[in-house]
Design goal:
The chain has two domains: about 5-100, Udp-n-acetylmuramoylalanyl-d-glutamate--2,6- Diaminopimelate Ligase, Chain: A, domain 1 (3-Layer(aba) Sandwich); about 105-320, Hexapeptide repeat proteins (UDP N-Acetylglucosamine Acyltransferase, domain 1, 3 Solenoid). Helix content is about 15%, strand content about 30%. It has five helices and 40 strands. It has a twelve-stranded mixed sheet, covered by helices on one side.
Length: about 350
Amino acid sequence: MSPTPVALTELIAALGGDLLGGSDVRIARIAPLDEADAQSISFLANPRYQAQLATTAAGCVIVAPALADAAAARGAAIVTPDPYLYFARLTQWWAARTSPQAVPGVHPSAVVSPEATLGQGVEIGPLAVIEAGAVIGDHARIGAHCVVEREARVGEHTRLAPRVVLGHGCRIGARGIVHSGVVIGADGFGFAPSKAGYVKIEQLGAVTIGDDVEIGANTCIDRGALADTVIEDGVKLDNLIQIAHNVHIGRNTAMAGCAAVAGSTRIGANCTIGGAANIIGHLVLVDGVHISAATTITRSINEPGVYSGPHPFEENSSWQKNAATLRQLHTLRDRVRALEKK
């Protein structure tokens, strides 16, 4: 069912910003500039799309102060210092109005141990399993087919989408979002070689995850071998990420899809790891390190900055110069050969 259109004045009352014109405009959807209609609200944060401002049919556009006049000349506009941040908050406000709301209670098909503890307003979906000693915080949502194993803990207002596994003794804090297919607390990859083959090292730690963490679909976070694998507050993990045993990720670090971190590596706070990047084990990355996509990190990084390159990686500006030089190697070789013939 489509949401009831909302007046721009209501948006301003909820989210702030300066409204230029359009006090009578009502919005029914959020849309990109090139797909918007008169009942859509769009935003312009990337200068690459500035040309679309003049052609968009959007009923309202969210812009920075520098584009206020141009936006107002075509119709209603909301002016804010950070249009992308405003857009993010708008999507949250919109989702709160339109997304299915939690229905507290335990579905008849769910299996909940009498030795589990459920907080107030908890929703347990169809065929979910909550084992003995598990603690589910107030207003948490456990989706269909989820498994919360013994002694595991889910913080208040955290949502596990369908088919999430939270392993025994593992913990996730408040206001987390865990998407479908995530496995938290599988065994780490630990084996001792012997003449008879590999001997399994039992993984005796757990996984500790802080508050306000989001984990993308089909991501795996292994339990520690002895101490815990740790994901601090505010971390954002994309889909299909592998976090090995005893990794420690600092607060507000973000990792894009298909990245992998080998065991016992420590990643600092406020870092970013690009898609398909690989970080080998037992390294330390300090706070404020940014790894480009598909980069392989083979040594510790002790200085904040941007690092790039499949192998070997290096500081980004140096890598760009070397990459540019590499494209000229064939021409340079021919020039050297010509000089040698002379």
